[in-house]
Design a protein that fits this description.
about 425 residues; globular; six-stranded mixed beta sheet
Length: about 425
């Protein structure tokens, strides 16, 4: 689908900033990168490596200190008229309605009257927000707010859509649904969008969206590697091919890619567990058991249980990772394993949770680290313990874009409930209880 026509190009770009203390920070150094027609490019890499800086240069919101940014071979002077941006923070004005927020970009371009109304209605329809035109941001969920952000960008019929962590503030399930819709919008000729450039910290997101993934290095920011992703659209996140590509990209990002990957198995990719409480997941299972066929739409579940939609989807994702629910589309379905958990008493539930946690890649990694400590302790010298800072450092390596403290708290809460782990906060030590 990608053509050879270059839309955007950064040519030997260097960008520096002066910090409040007077020091000069070099965000990008001698960076060159092209973006072609009809492609999706993902920019990934550690925080502070210049991804967002490059996106702003492409948008014409800043000028490079050295080098050149070009659009269709011509030096970009001012804001990129053929582009529109979507931000992580939604960037909605709370005193304006959905329709008024969507119209902001059109106002700035001098589009008024019937032409503006038609463009707003078309964009709102494209993102599925019909009926919410007069709602205010405070009345919308996080996912709906981001849809407004996309509608505002689409209203100006951009050729290039630039996205800076567009799903970063959303829960995983909402982000997953919106990613699919973004791909549909890009593939739909009616939108006018033929090229996407997205900055993301999510490995899965980059693989799901992009045909080309650009890995940045830092200090200063530079292109370290480019990875072509030839998986056909629409992409299936649970397919072996998708998982293989995710593993490959994750290995590059963690600097563990072997020179000859076929000569040895790729390192295991850990999966973060949502920051949800045991009682929340148990409450979800109990409620599903009261519904016909043990299933229901996530929107209805959130309303029934009196929780925010975004929070509900995080709870659903936790239950799904434990194998207790499945999530076909917007539905949540209780699995046979979930019914078995509900049938047991508290002790049986703890055992079932312990079994599931030991199979989960994140918890399995922690257990392996504790067992390594056991092998290093002489017989009779006491229980194997792991220092908090050692585990936090390990989590930071495997999850460079997720707060390690949040994952650590998740491990402690669920490990204690399942009587798998114990934690001495005063001593800063973690201990394995069950083998």
């Amino acid at each position: 689908m990608t053509t050879d026509t270059v839309l955007l190009e950064a040519r030997h770009v260097t960008q520096r900033f002066r910090l409040p203390n007077g020091q000069i920070l070099e965000a990008l150094h001698d960076l060159s990168l092209t973006v072609r027609e009809q492609e999706v490019v993902a920019l990934v890499g550690p925080s502070g490596c210049g991804k967002s800086t490059l996106l702003r240069l492409f948008a014409g919101l800043a000028r490079p200190g050295e080098g050149t940014v070009l659009y269709r071979g011509q030096r970009l002077d001012g804001v990129l008229g053929a582009g529109a941006m979507v931000f992580q923070s939604f960037a909605l004005l709370p005193w304006l309605t959905v329709a008024q927020n969507v119209a902001m970009g059109l106002e700035a371009r001098g589009v008024h009257g019937p032409a503006q109304r038609d463009a707003v209605a078309r964009a709102i329809n494209l993102v599925g927000l019909d009926g919410f035109e007069q709602a205010y941001p405070k009345e919308l969920s996080g996912g709906m707010k981001q849809r407004v952000g996309f509608a505002r960008a689409l209203a100006v019929a951009p050729e290039i859509l630039l996205m800076d962590e567009p799903f970063g503030a959303l829960d995983p399930l909402t982000a997953e649904n919106l990613r699919s819709q973004v791909v549909d919008l890009w593939r739909d000729p009616a939108t006018g969008v033929n090229t996407l450039v997205v900055v993301t910290h999510s490995v899965e997101e980059a693989v799901f969206l992009a045909g080309r993934i650009v890995v940045f290095g830092s200090n200063p920011g530079h292109v370290r590697e480019e990875l072509k992703n030839s998986l056909p659209y629409p992409r299936r996140e649970r397919s072996p091919e998708f998982e293989a590509m995710v593993d490959r990209l994750h290995a590059i990002l963690t600097a563990t890619l072997l020179p000859e990957p076929e000569a040895a198995p790729a390192p295991q990719r850990l999966v973060p567990f949502p920051r949800v409480h045991v009682a929340e997941v148990a409450g979800l299972l109990d409620h599903l058991a009261t519904r016909p066929d043990g299933r229901g739409p996530v929107f209805e579940l959130a309303e029934d249980l009196g929780v925010d939609y975004d929070r509900m989807t995080a709870v659903v994702r936790g239950a799904e990772q434990l194998g207790w629910v499945a999530t076909p589309g917007e539905m949540v379905q209780l699995t046979p394993a979930g019914r078995d958990v509900l049938a047991g008493d508290d002790a049986a539930r703890k055992v079932a949770t312990r079994v599931r946690l030991k199979q989960h890649p994140l918890f399995a990694r922690v257990i392996a680290m504790l067992k390594e400590e056991t092998e290093e302790i002489e017989e009779g010298a006491g229980k194997a313990e792991l220092a908090d800072e050692e585990l936090l450092a390990d989590l930071t390596i495997y999850f460079p874009f997720i707060p390690a403290e949040s994952l650590f708290a998740t491990i402690i809460e669920w490990g204690r409930y399942a009587e798998l782990l114990d934690h001495d906060a005063a001593a800063g030590r973690l201990r394995l209880l069950a083998q």
